Amino acid sequence: MTSGVGPAERLARAALTRVFEPGDERGGQWLRQFGAVGLLARITSQDAGRELLAGAGEQRLGGYRTRAAAAVPERDLASVTALGGRFICPGDQEWPTQLDDLGAAGPIGLWVRGRPDLRIWSLRSVAVVGARACTPYGAHMAAALGSGLAERGWVVTSGAAFGVDGAAHRGALAAGGATVAVLACGVDVAYPRGHAELIGRIAEQGLVIGELPPGDHPTRSRFVLRNRVIAALTRGTVVVEAEYRSGSLVTARGAQRLGRFTMGVPGPATSGLSAGVHELLRGEGVLVTDAAEVAELVGDIGDLAPLRRGPVVPRDLLDPVSARVLEALPARGAADGREIARGAGTTADEALGRLYELHSLGFVERRGDGWQLATPTTPVATARRGGT
Fold first, then answer.
1. Parallel, antiparallel, or unpaired for β 236-240 and 125-130?
2. pLDDT tens per residue across span 283-319
3. How far is the C-alpha of 273 from the C-alpha of 240, rounded, in Å?
4. Which of 118-127, 161-170, 303-312, 360-369 has the lowest mean pLDDT?
5. Is residue 100 part of a domain?
6. Total number of domains in the chain
7. Which residues 6+ apart lie within 8 Å of 160 measured at CB?
8. CA-CA distance, 105 to 23, in Å (whole number)?
């Protein structure tokens, strides 16, 4: 790992991940002001008082000191190394600079498991998030998005939770693609436990990352704060099923604030699990239904989704004059050539010629001196395109 970060700075930042909760803006401001080594020295100093850390109350400062006293960064760094992982921080070549968009709420550093380069992967990544208790439809859409994006060379980023997150990861893995799991706990902790095997597979084939040091456990607030990292790391966030109050919407709104793309997969209007997505789509969210549409939105020029249209029927291939002649025939019964010509706005000779063409194609039938639409059982040949 190429780095401009000195050993003392890395050690101090590793310690500070045990002192501050993710997203602690006050801690982030101090970090910018004093640097990691200076900030840790102020927290652990026996003479530390509120004057050394402006804005910190005695109770909060006491909590920081207690955590700092228990931190053993050398042990944490050794633990992540034993997993085949590493601790990266701003200044490292692998650090994803888009995380700096979070300002003072940005990560102090990231604990990483897996071989790929996080910075490179994050340049072309999309978040796929959604409900834990998703429907079969939601799981199907998440897996399809995961595999489809992976096949197009995109990195699928999610939170390794049950439901949509897990389906998106599995879709990417099944396609032999790249996926990143952002955890709300230590990268050596399998949470949820039911996803221990999945998280292990992601660590082998992709990346497992988190702000919390090895062994740390998840909490409700840590899940919410984890979402800002998912939003900042990626070019855009796709929400697949979410209720009105959903952590997935927190991720999407965070992405909007950061200037990232926000997308939603629609569902039934009667489904509470789609209500939050639909609310997102009524605002600045963009409706998407597959990986091609996601890639078109977040990708480069020329990365276009295929043109969508309904099936082409034989009538669509008729030239304009023939189409007008066909439309001039009555729905029931027959009409003579002059009447049809008048309805089509053409001459009788022109109408007669087109009627014979339409007859050969199976669109019309001759009845005595008149013409009528062919019965539904009559086969219709493929009409020729354009021309006269």
1. parallel
2. 989 999 999 999 999 987 556 666 677 777 788 888 9
3. 9
4. 303-312
5. no
6. 3
7. 166, 169, 181, 182, 183, 191, 192, 195, 198, 199, 202, 208
8. 4
